[in-house]
Amino acid sequence: MNAIADYRTFPLISPLASAASFAGGVSVTWADGRISPFHNLWLRDNCPCGDCVYEVTREQVFLVADVPEDIQVQAVTIGDDGRLVVQWDDGHASAYHPGWLRAHAYDAQSLAEREAARPHKHRWMQGLSLPVYDHGAVMQDDDTLLEWLLAVRDVGLTQLHGVPTEPGALIPLAKRISFIRESNFGVLFDVRSKADADSNAYTAFNLPLHTDLPTRELQPGLQFLHCLVNDATGGNSTFVDGFAIAEALRIEAPAAYRLLCETPVEFRNKDRHSDYRCTAPVIPLDSSGEVREIRLANFLRAPFQMDAQRMPDYYLAYRRFIQMTREPRFCFTRRLEAGQLWCFDNRRVLHARDAFDPASGDRHFQGCYVDRDELLSRILVLQR
Amino acid sequence: MNAIADYRTFPLISPLASAASFAGGVSVTWADGRISPFHNLWLRDNCPCGDCVYEVTREQVFLVADVPEDIQVQAVTIGDDGRLVVQWDDGHASAYHPGWLRAHAYDAQSLAEREAARPHKHRWMQGLSLPVYDHGAVMQDDDTLLEWLLAVRDVGLTQLHGVPTEPGALIPLAKRISFIRESNFGVLFDVRSKADADSNAYTAFNLPLHTDLPTRELQPGLQFLHCLVNDATGGNSTFVDGFAIAEALRIEAPAAYRLLCETPVEFRNKDRHSDYRCTAPVIPLDSSGEVREIRLANFLRAPFQMDAQRMPDYYLAYRRFIQMTREPRFCFTRRLEAGQLWCFDNRRVLHARDAFDPASGDRHFQGCYVDRDELLSRILVLQR
C-alpha cells in the first residue's frame, strides 16, 4: 500500500482527527476543524496500492468502471501512521496518506484554497521592469533557470544577455526547457529579408503587433528571438501585454470586448506548399471566463465571415483593439543587440517590428518555439 | 489590381448583374438572383491590389485600422471583365473578381451554403468497412495519398499494407503529410515491453480504450502505429469511434452526456523528467455545440476535483462512458501483422491493446504523431 501515483510529496498540513462513513462516502474531520467528504467511488478510484497503481510507471491499472457502482465501506479507521484506512466490502483495502488526501480534498473550502493558489499573471504596461537573465547562469544553474521560467510564465516577456552569436545557439537553450516545437517554417527559423519570402516576417516591412501562427489550432506557446547581427537602421522591437489590453477593452468598451471574445474569425497561412487555416475568436476565454490567449496577426487574416448584421460593429471592435495596441501606454519598445534574445509568451504578448533598411547593414535573427505544456512541465519538475 | 491573397482559384458561379451603394456599403445582385451586401470596411479591408497585398507572400500589408471608420464609396461599377470596381473617396480603387467575391459573400444564404459544404464525419460502429491503402501507392501517387488522407479526416481509422518492416519506415511516410509532432516520448516511440517503462503503453498490460496524451493542451491529431514484429500471443488492437459513442450517450443518457461535456477534469503524465497536466472535459464541444474531440485515458487521470454535490453523478457518467467503449456494438478489433500500420484520428478514435505475453514471442511497434493542422493543410494543397 505504498505506491503513490505522483512524484510530488505532500506535506502534512493537518492530521486526521476522525473519520466516519455516511451513505455513499466517508467524511473526515481534520485536526484544524475542516470537514471533507469523500465519496466511495472516489476513494476506491484513488486507491494507491500496488495492485491498483503500477509502481514502475506510477500509472493506474485499476479501472473504476470495474467495481460495482454501489461499492460499500465495511470499516473506516485512522491508522497508527495517521493514514485513512478503508476496508471495502469486496475484500480490498486502501490507505491514504493524510498529506495527499488533504491536497486532493474537494470540500468547498479546499477547492477555493487551491483556486486561490493558482499562479497569477502580472499584467504590465509601458513601464514594465523587464526581467533580464544571464545566458550562462540559465544554462548552468537550475535556480536561475527556474526564476527565468517563472518570469516567462507570469510576466510573459523576458530577455537574456550574453548569448553566443553563432547560428543554432538557441537549440541548447531551448532544450534546457524541452524539445522545440517545429512548424512549416522549420525547427529554427531565420528572420532576415529574403527575395522569395513566404511570410511578411521575412521582408524588411514593418510588422504590426501580432501573435505568431494564430493560423494553428494551438498557437506556439513561447517564442524565442535571438539576435545574431543587428547593424541595419530601424527594426526596433515593440511588445504589448495582450492581457492588459483585453482587460482595458473590457472596461472601456464592454460590447466591443464581447464581440472579440465571441466571434470566431479565420486566420490563414498559405504558400506554395501549405495552406493552414484556423477559426477562433481574437480573445478566446477559458471555461471560467478568463482570457486564455490573444490571437491576432492582421496579415494572416482571412476575410471576415459572419452575420451581415454583426459586421459593422465587429469591424469597429477589431479596429479599436488594433488601435489600442498602438497606444503608448501599452507599448514597450527596445532595440535588440547581437548576443541578446527575447523569450516571450506568444499567446499573450503581441510583438511588432519596425521596418528596417536592409541596405544600411546586416540584420539576422533566429527564432524557435517551445509550447506552454513543456514550460509548465519543466517548472513543476524544477519545483519538486 | 491583380494580386489575390490566396493560392486557390475561385470559379465563376454566377456573374454580377448589378451593384449599388447603400449607407455603409455596397449591395450586389448576382445573375442567379442572389443579393449580397458588403460593408465599406469589409470591401476596403479585402482590396486585393498590389499596394494592399504583398505579391510575393500574398499577405496583407494594408491595415484596416489605417483608414477612417466612415470611408465612403464614390462610385461602384461592374467592369468589362466582370469585376466589381469600387472607387473610394480617398482616391484608392479596388477591383474584386466575381468568383472570389461570391466565395466570400456573407449574406445568409451564402453563409448557410458554405456551412453545409463543410466535410462531414462518417460515424461508424463495429461493422466498419476499414479503409485500407497500399503503402507504395501512397508514397508515389498523389491521388492515392489524397484519398487516404480524406479517409483519415472523415472516417478517422485507416490501415496501410506493404509497409517496410525496418525501424524508421514511418518517417518518410509521415513526411508525405508534413513534419512529425514530437513529444517527450520522442519523434518516434517504440512500443514494446520495457522493464523501466515510463508509461503503461510500454508494458505488456492490456491498455483500456484511450486517446494518447490527453495530458497536453492539444492532443496529437493523427497517430501512426507501425508493426515491425508481432509474434507474441495476445496484443490485439481494438478501436471505437468516440464520436459515435458520444452521440449514443447524448441520446441514451443526456444528463450524463452534459456532465462529460461541461466538467473539466485533470489528466497527468509524469515521470522522473516531466510532469504534464491538462484540465479539460472528456467531451469538449466546439462553439457550435458539436463534439470537437474526445479526451480519455483512465491511466493518465488525476483525482477528480469538483463540487462534492456533483461528484456522485459525475462518477456514474464517467463509468457509463467507459462501459459504452466496451460494448461490442462499437468495437472494431483486429490483429496488426508485420508490415501493416494503423493511422487514426487520435482525438476521435479511442484505441486499446489486449495484454500480450512477452515470453511467447517478440512484439515491436513504432509510433508517431502528426497534427490535424498539417493533415488539413496537406489536403487543401493536394486539392488546389
UniProtKB/TrEMBL annotation, chains A, B:
Q: Which SUPFAM superfamilies match?
A: Clavaminate synthase-like
Q: Which GO terms describe its molecular function?
A: gamma-butyrobetaine dioxygenase activity
Recorded E.C. number(s)?
1.14.11.1
Co-factor(s): Fe(2+); L-ascorbate
Residue ranges of domain Gamma-butyrobetaine hydroxylase-like N-terminal in the record: 26-101
User: Which Pfam family is one of this chain's hits?
Assistant: GBBH-like_N
Q: What class of enzyme is it?
A: oxidoreductase
NCBIfam families per UniProt = carnitine_bodg
Q: Which family does it belong to?
A: Belongs to the gamma-BBH/TMLD family.
Put simply, this protein is called Gamma-butyrobetaine dioxygenase
Species per Swiss-Prot/TrEMBL record: Pseudomonas taiwanensis
